[in-house]
UniProtKB/TrEMBL annotation:
Protein's recorded name: Polyketide cyclase
Pfam families the UniProt entry points to: Polyketide_cyc2
Organism lineage string: Bacteria, Bacillati, Actinomycetota, Actinomycetes, Kitasatosporales
InterPro entries, per database record: Polyketide_cyclase/dehydratase, START-like_dom_sf
Annotated SUPFAM superfamilies: Bet v1-like
């Protein structure tokens, strides 16, 4: 298993940050691992909804079938996905209002036999991608 996380204070209210997170057509502008949504982004999100995303991590392309596990407007989005080679991926976005700013945290977890072979490198690559994503997200909403 490989666990990763990143956190940033973004100089924008939670509603504005949340709106950007939910704007799936613009995912490629800030999400460092996102390539595209082969079937288009999710029409609407609700617990149990599914969508497919093409991603790239450590230079390798991967298609992930995501299921929404938790959704609390302007607070939290948790998705769990199945990727290639039996890899399971969990991603959780948490927003905490802080005056006119918002603290955004992204937590991720990778599990599966293939992960154990490259856990250290995966953790470093994914952590760097999360930090880059938060930096780009901040630039879009601040």
């Amino acid at each position: 298993m490989a666990e990763v996380s990143a956190e940033a204070r973004i100089e924008a209210p939670a509603g504005k940050v949340w709106a950007q997170l939910m704007d799936f057509p613009s995912y490629g502008e800030w999400n460092a691992t996102h390539t595209n949504f082969p079937n288009g982004g999710p029409e609407s999100l609700e617990t149990g909804a599914t969508f497919t995303e093409n991603m790239k991590l450590m230079g390798f392309p991967a298609e992930v079938l995501w299921t929404v596990e938790e959704l609390e407007s302007e607070r939290a989005l948790a998705i769990k996905g199945k990727g290639p080679m039996g890899v399971l991926v969990t991603t959780r976005y948490s927003l905490a209002p802080d005056g006119d700013a918002t603290t955004v945290r992204i937590d991720g977890e990778f599990t599966g036999a293939a992960v154990s072979l490259m856990a250290g490198k995966l953790k470093d690559s994914a952590t760097a991608a999360l930090n880059e994503s938060l930096r780009k997200l901040s630039g879009l909403v601040a």
